[in-house]
Amino acid sequence: VSPSSGPQHGGTLLTISMHLPCVRPVWCLFGDGRTAQPARQQSTSHLTCVTPGQGDGAATTTVRVMVEGDANSHALLYHYQASITIDHLHPPIGVTDGATRVKITGRNFRQDADLRCAFDALQANPQWLSPQSIACIAPPASVGTVALRLVDLQGNALTQTAAPFEYSPRATVASLLPDTGTSQGGALVSIQGAHFLRRAAT
Question: How far is CA 85 from CA 3, 112, 155, in A?
């Protein structure tokens, strides 16, 4: 079964390799309670199904394939991981040409080579900092707000909810008035330019 693990809120698309000589009604059965999920036969050698939610946190369960009511297939192991939660982004705004380092704080971040930051459909490799924080470099994108979430290599969401991240044009400075001042400081300087934000990027 691939992947062999996923978040406890479910929704992970699994691929199971097994021999199915012809198209038949197929189901995936999860756990001792045999929660049934409809499966789709992709070929005579593999099928796909989506994991259900598991409300008890991290746990290992069994997956069996039921073909036309027969659930005697070999039991496969699947590991539910605690769902990743995003609480805060710093900064929540970046420039459209990319390269903004975004620190994401939350819970249950893992050191996992399969983890990716997804800015809508655009992905970036994260830097693991601690179980409560990671960082990633925002890719270039158009002006607007995107949904930032964490996904695996197959694009399965590892977070139940996304955090909004805003792309804005890079600010430009045209002039300063006055453009000189004393070494003691204290001068009020007017800055003329474009694309200044009305709010702080915190």
Answer: 20, 16, 17
Place of tokens 């290992």: 60
- Long-range Cβ pairs for the range 139-142 (8 Å, 24+): 139/98, 140/96, 140/97, 140/98, 141/96, 141/98, 141/167, 142/96, 142/167
pLDDT at 202: 52
CB 104 within 8 A of CB 163: yes
Tell me the C-alpha distance between 85 and 70, whole Å.
Answer: 38
- Average pLDDT, stretch 89-118? 93
Beta carbons of 54 and 61 less than 8 angstroms apart: yes
Instruction: Identify residue 57 by its one-letter amino acid code.
Output: G
Q: What is the pLDDT of residues 38-76, one digit of tens each?
A: 999 988 889 999 999 887 778 899 999 988 778 777 899
Q: Which amino acid is at 53?
A: G
**42 torsion bin: left (phi>0), alpha (psi -120 to 50), beta (else):** alpha
- Positive or negative torsion for Cα 54, 28, 11, 137: positive
Residue with tokens 């400081």: 185
- How many Å apart are CA 199 and CA 196, to the nearest integer? 9
